[in-house]
């Protein structure tokens, strides 16, 4: 497996820093807390940690509103804490990935404060300023992803500025070469500090239509959907010029030897795969989010795997994401039993898996009482399911301790459930043990890391596929229903099953039984 890069062999683990481990009793996770928990992460068997934003921020969008790209928010620690964190991670053999948020800054970033100070400020053009439309209202019909117009009036200078998200998150003007140079310097600042790569926030939104044309209405819009779905995002996302930006980010990273570039991109597969660029000049991994919205149905998932594999350019390395801080947790989407099947799926598909903290212990979405809602997405568009607090609740370390061992103070969000790392640690049938076994199986079987994926098939509620490398053939069968099912197989041996006691058992040629919600990986011979 030596010819593969670490991020092709490895598994990425996302840490939402506010919620992983608090070390100072303020109820919010921090870098020292993460550092203290790194041995747990390394023992789990993942290869890299991606940490959501830790930069100085007014926290209007919990760090995705950056007020200084080259420092650490005091809430999370200092640059010295960051160094300790990165050094410790590297000592433990873990790579460090940061979140890079180039589309918008905070409205409190000095760049924006300068930009809004006057129309002739040298940084005026660093953001997207426009005169009012003919009726004196916003310049066009563009809508914010957090609800309402995407244009905010600035009385002081008599113009509007554009914000794809909150008004506290003005969009930078990526057509301005000075912005691009400043952002390259941000990348270099962190690369100089030993960062192994970046997850780039909303990469597909960076460039907007140069003529600021109105977005057309979305004929498929249904009332109750988020506001911005009323329009197609024809002129506000996935503009052709974005690919040039990706190439230039890639070139900056390549100044440091090859570091990994991952893009957050919510687009249909044919558009998504263009972000790979030509060989070596695009993103290494445009995040593949298909599983986040998948219907938990064998036929749908089989189709999705085949279509994705078929759409990838020859040089492209696939990847799969099972959870993140913006979507309901898998144990709530698919249910706690099927979350085990999902773990087997994630870790046996072809491509780099990204795992969201807490999913390895089967955390479910938390119940957030109305007076404890934190997420601006819920506060600004209440009751339509946009809130992201449920999937951001604190990591559950030890159910016998107050706040599951996350904090000595009052946690910023309530603890979701009682199950914890400590309960699951020595229980061979726990979700945590399943993840550890799967991660070790993946690490030790070249077919799972670099093998082809073949014969992706759904038989009723059972999804099956093969991973092949040289003479190794692995057969994967996932029973996605809550009843027993049968599966056709070759002769083989079960290497791992979600069902206790099945490992090491034989599979016979022909029909084999799968228990309700059972998933297995077997080594087979033809
Ligand atoms: C990305 C982040 C999300 C954030 C948004 C605006 O989608 O994942 O949490 O709200 O960008 O920065």
TrEMBL record:
Keywords: Glycosidase, Hydrolase. Residues 14-392 form the Glycosyl hydrolase family 13 catalytic domain. The keyword Hydrolase applies. The keyword Hydrolase applies. Its EC number is 3.2.1.10. One of its GO terms (molecular function) is oligo-1,6-glucosidase activity. Pfam families: Alpha-amylase (PF00128). It is an enzyme of class 3 (hydrolase). GO terms for biological process: oligosaccharide catabolic process. Belongs to the glycosyl hydrolase 13 family. This is Alpha-amylase. It comes from Paraburkholderia rhynchosiae. The lineage of its organism: Bacteria, Pseudomonadati, Pseudomonadota, Betaproteobacteria, Burkholderiales.
């Amino acid at each position: 497996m030596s010819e593969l890069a670490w991020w092709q062999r490895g598994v990425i683990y996302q840490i939402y820093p506010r919620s992983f481990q608090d070390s100072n009793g303020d109820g919010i996770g921090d870098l020292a807390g993460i550092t203290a928990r790194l041995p747990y992460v390394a023992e789990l068997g993942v290869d890299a940690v991606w940490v959501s934003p830790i930069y100085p921020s007014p926290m209007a969008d919990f760090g995705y509103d950056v007020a200084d790209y080259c420092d650490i928010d005091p809430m999370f620690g200092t640059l010295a804490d960051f160094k300790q964190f990165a050094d410790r991670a590297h000592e433990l053999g873990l790579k460090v990935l940061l979140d890079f948020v180039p589309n918008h800054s905070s409205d409190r970033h000095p760049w924006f404060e300068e930009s809004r100070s006057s129309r002739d400020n040298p940084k005026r053009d660093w953001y997207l300023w426009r005169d009012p439309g003919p009726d004196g209202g916003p310049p066009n019909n563009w809508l914010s992803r957090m609800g309402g117009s995407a244009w905010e009036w600035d009385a002081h200078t008599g113009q509007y500025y554009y914000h794809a998200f909150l008004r506290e998150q003005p969009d930078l003007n990526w057509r301005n070469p000075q912005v691009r140079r400043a952002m390259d310097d941000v990348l270099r600042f962190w690369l100089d500090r030993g960062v192994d790569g970046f997850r780039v926030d909303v990469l597909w939104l960076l460039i907007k239509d140069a003529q600021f044309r109105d977005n057309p209405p979305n004929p498929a819009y249904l009332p109750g959907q988020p506001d911005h779905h009323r329009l197609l995002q024809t002129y506000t996302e996935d503009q052709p010029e974005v690919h040039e930006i990706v190439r230039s980010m890639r070139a900056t990273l390549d100044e440091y030897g090859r570091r990994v570039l991952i893009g957050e991109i919510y687009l249909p597969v044919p558009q998504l795969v263009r972000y790979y660029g030509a060989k070596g000049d695009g993103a290494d991994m445009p995040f593949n989010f298909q599983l986040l919205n998948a219907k938990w149905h064998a036929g749908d998932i089989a189709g999705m795997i085949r279509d994705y594999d078929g759409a990838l350019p020859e040089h492209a390395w696939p990847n799969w994401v099972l959870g993140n801080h913006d979507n309901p947790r898998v144990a709530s989407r698919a249910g706690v039993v099927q979350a085990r099947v999902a773990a087997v799926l994630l870790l046996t598909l072809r491509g780099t898996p990204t795992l969201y903290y807490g999913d390895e212990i089967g955390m479910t979405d938390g119940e957030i009482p109305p007076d404890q809602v934190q997420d601006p997405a819920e506060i600004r568009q209440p009751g339509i399911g946009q809130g992201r607090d449920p999937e951001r609740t604190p990591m559950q370390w030890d159910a016998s301790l107050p706040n599951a061992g996350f904090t000595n103070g009052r946690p910023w969000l309530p603890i979701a459930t009682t199950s914890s790392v400590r309960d699951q640690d020595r229980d061979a049938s726990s979700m945590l043990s399943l993840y550890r076994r799967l991660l070790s199986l993946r690490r030790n079987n070249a077919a799972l890391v670099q093998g082809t994926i073949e014969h992706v098939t759904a038989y009723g509620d059972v999804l099956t596929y093969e991973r092949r490398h040289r003479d190794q053939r692995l057969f994967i069968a996932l029973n996605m229903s809550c009843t027993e099912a049968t599966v056709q197989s070759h002769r083989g041996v079960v290497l791992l099953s979600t069902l206790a006691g099945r490992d090491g058992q034989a599979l016979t040629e022909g029909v084999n039984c799968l228990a309700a919600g059972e998933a297995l990986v077997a080594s087979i011979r033809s």
